[in-house]
């Protein structure tokens, strides 16, 4: 067995394409990337304000993303759903 790369951390979700892997998750206003295809959109009332959710699917690697837009939550942003 050849030695494996010593400094290659195992990603939490394998096979994300490079632009997907570079998306900053759970951070308000973090940008997505050009190959995300917009899907369904929904709104939720959160008491302190409205949150809106937009689904995206990556055209390159097939990853499913959800972007939460919520003015009251600095950590609302990109979340990886399924791959
Ligand atoms: Zn991707």
Describe this structure in words.
This protein is mainly beta and 83 residues long. It has a domain at 25-80. The protein is built from one helix and four strands. A four-stranded antiparallel beta sheet has the order 1-2-3-4, with no helix packed on it. Strand 2 and strand 3 form a beta hairpin. The longest helix has 4 residues, at 18-21. The model has no long low-confidence stretch (mean pLDDT 88). Bound molecules: zinc ion (ZN).
Unreliable runs: none
Order of helices and strands: HEEEE
For the secondary structure, the number of strands is: 4
Shape: elongated
Share of helix, binned? under 10%
Name the average pLDDT.
88
Largest sheet: 4 strands, antiparallel
What small-molecule ligands were found?
A: zinc ion
What integer value in Å does the Rg equal? 15 Å
Individual helix count: 1
Oligomer, anyone? single chain
How far apart are the termini? 30 Å
Strand order of the largest sheet: 1-2-3-4
Secondary structural class: mainly beta
Strand content: 25-35%
Give a concise summary.
By secondary structure, the chain is mostly beta strands. Helices cover 5% and strands 35% of the residues.
Strand and helix map with partners:
Blueprint: H1 18-21, E1 36-45, E2 50-58, E3 64-70, E4 78-80
Antiparallel strand pairs: 1-2, 2-3, 3-4
The chain binds zinc ion (ZN).
The site of zinc ion has 8 residues, from helix 1.
Features:
four-stranded antiparallel β-sheet, 83 residues, mainly beta, binds zinc ion, 1 helix
């Amino acid at each position: 067995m050849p030695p494996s790369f010593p400094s290659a951390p195992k990603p939490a979700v394998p096979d994300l394409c490079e632009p997907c892997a570079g998306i900053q998750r759970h951070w308000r206003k973090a940008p997505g990337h050009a190959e995300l295809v917009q899907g369904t959109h929904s709104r939720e009332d959160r008491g302190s304000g409205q949150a809106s959710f937009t689904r995206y699917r990556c055209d390159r690697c097939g990853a499913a993303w959800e972007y939460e837009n919520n003015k009251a939550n600095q950590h609302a942003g990109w979340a990886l759903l399924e791959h």
